[in-house]
Amino acid sequence: MTADRVAVVTGGASGIGLASCARLREDGFTVAALDLSPDGAAGAADLTVRCDVTSEASVTSAMATVAVRLGEIDVLVNNAGITGSRDATVCHQTPVEDWDMVQAVNVRGPFLCSRAVLPSMLARKSGHIITIASVAGLIAFPGRCAYTASKGAALMLTRSIAVDYASAGIRANAVCPGMVYTPMTSWRLDQPRLRAEVESRIPVGRVASAAEIADAVTLLASGRLAYMTGHPLVVDGGMSAW
Ligand SMILES: NC(=O)c1ccc[n+]([C@@H]2O[C@H](COP(=O)([O-])OP(=O)(O)OC[C@H]3O[C@@H](n4cnc5c(N)ncnc54)[C@H](O)[C@@H]3O)[C@@H](O)[C@H]2O)c1
């Protein structure tokens, strides 16, 4: 079913992106990992490309490289993301440059990458754009103003693409993880007191592994759930359910 299909994963050299590259490949996709520092994806992807998702020129060049080397892109996983510095907390204390950088990576990035792959998807009347948002796009994370706002925007970008391109055979869905152990969160989760505090707010009592989020990505990418578009698939151990 997925043989010879091409998937691109942004931020594919670490955490959820790296796990997604490996799982998509297991499922028969030919996989390209795009990242600021792509070397970490070498063992998990068929092609690694240096790309800054905030730069139009970098995104255009990276997507063209993938198309030439691997073929037209069937699945785009908009995964690259940042939380902002530890100073980026509540609104009035968030440095403006932190706000701008978080929106640039988490919102402009998915916009530029989607914009770059959609013409070829339109020409082939098929394609799937999967964006890693967050439960922070559905409920506000305390003290994470820029991040929460960016994930809400990423989710609405997903819905906008879903609505505008459904009739052209193109789908867009989001995955909304809760708390996942990756290099993004390990600084906090490696401190037993902070980890216990985080896990006390998760009904299943533990954080997710990156592989558990990659499972959701591969389920969406598989072509099953083909009637689903514009959907935020929540994978959070029940965190947003209470
Ligand atoms: N870890 C969590 O608990 C969690 C929860 C919900 C959502 N998410 C989301 O999942 C996604 C992946 O997070 P992760 O935890 O695996 O993080 P991570 O820090 O382990 O990996 C992020 C990757 O994105 C890359 N990246 C950052 N800026 C980039 C840019 N401008 N261009 C290209 N690549 C860039 C980094 O180099 C890195 O390889 C993010 O969008 C994040 O917001 C994570």
Q: Structural class of the helices, strands and pairings?
A: alpha/beta
- Going by CATH, the homologous superfamily would be NAD(P)-binding Rossmann-like Domain
The CATH topology name reads Rossmann fold
Can you give the mean pLDDT?
97
In a few lines, what is going on in this structure?
This protein has 242 residues and is an alpha/beta fold. The chain has a single domain (6-178, 209-234), classed as 3-Layer(aba) Sandwich (Rossmann fold).
Describe what you observe in this structure.
The protein is of the alpha/beta class and 242 residues long. The chain has one domain: Rossmann fold (3-Layer(aba) Sandwich). Helices cover 42% and strands 17% of the residues. It is built from 7 helices and 9 strands, in the order βαββαβαβαββααβαβ. The strands form 2 sheets. It has a 7-stranded parallel β-sheet, sandwiched between helices. Strand 4, helix 3 and strand 5 form a beta-alpha-beta unit. Helix 2 runs parallel beside helix 3. It is globular, with a radius of gyration of 17 Å. Bound molecules: nicotinamide-adenine-dinucleotide. The site of nicotinamide-adenine-dinucleotide (NAD) has 28 residues, from helix 1.
